[in-house]
Amino acid sequence: LKIEHSKLIDNLKLEIDTLKKELNTAKKEYFDLEGVHAILNELQQSIRDAEQEQKAQKKLLDESINRGKELEKKKKEFEQKIKELDKKYLELSGKIVVKADAESLELRYQDLIRQEEKVKGQIKSEQAVASEKKERIAVLVGKKHDYENILKDVEWISQTKKLMELFSGALLKTQEALREEFVGIVNEVMAEVWPTLYPYGDITAVKLEIENRDYVLKARTTAEWVNVEGITSGGERSLAALALRIAFSLALARNLGMLVLDEPTHNLDVNAIDELAITLRERLPNLIDQVFLITHEERLESAVSGYLYKLERNKELDEPTKINLIASPEI
Known about the structure:
Blueprint: H1 2-29, H2 36-93, H3 99-197, E1 203-211, E2 214-221, E3 225-227, H4 234-252, E4 258-262, H5 270-283, E5 290-294, E6 308-312, E7 322-327
Parallel strand pairs: 4-5
Antiparallel strand pairs: 1-2, 2-3, 6-7
Helix pairs in contact: 1-3, 2-3, 3-4, 4-5
């Protein structure tokens, strides 16, 4: 019986370990938000099954206890009968009895002893079963408690997911609204500065549009709006880009007082450079207080209406850079 009891305990431990692994697996799986409702239904069904099994095990435990009480009662009755038979045996041992009667009593006595041992074995077996049922019920109660905690976690995750979806949607709408508002402000500024930068009739306006989640700079010709990239000349693209930079600056910093241009003649032809020089000298001062121009293009010297500095350095002699004032308003 001890060996069987030990095996039962080992089996219960294995079953407990298996349940723990299943519980850990369930905890990992419930973080998959896409399958959370399926897991919730399975857990609810598992709790209902566990509750039914708990009721059945309790019923079996009660029956085992009652059976044990009945066997204990029979054991006492058998013990009493054995005592009575022992007494009769002693009384008969001092008398002359028929040999057949003595053998019959001896057989009856041995039978009662065997029945007593059988009853004792049944009682131990019932007690072991009752103990096993108690442990099983305790495991099921713990499992039910764990499932209830998981259900609470799943519910919290579901609510959090809904809130995050609402927040994400609100954030996207806010971004779209801010982007549209910013593009509108940029286009208003470009509408004001473009006639100053480009006082010709072939391109009357430029604007920024959003197409396929991307920004596109467009120019309005006498016929229609066209993309600046690939349609207009190099000088026109340069002025459109300059208008866009000015608009960005004014939209982001209302009190903009200066503009810094570093090598703005890149990819411009001679006519475009001359047009840029005129724009910098005659038109930008109406929009910007100060313009800092850094360039290697000598043709842009005509764009200077303030101070002009020339930086020179003899690399072969490794001399320091020399700064010479070429022009100023006072000169």
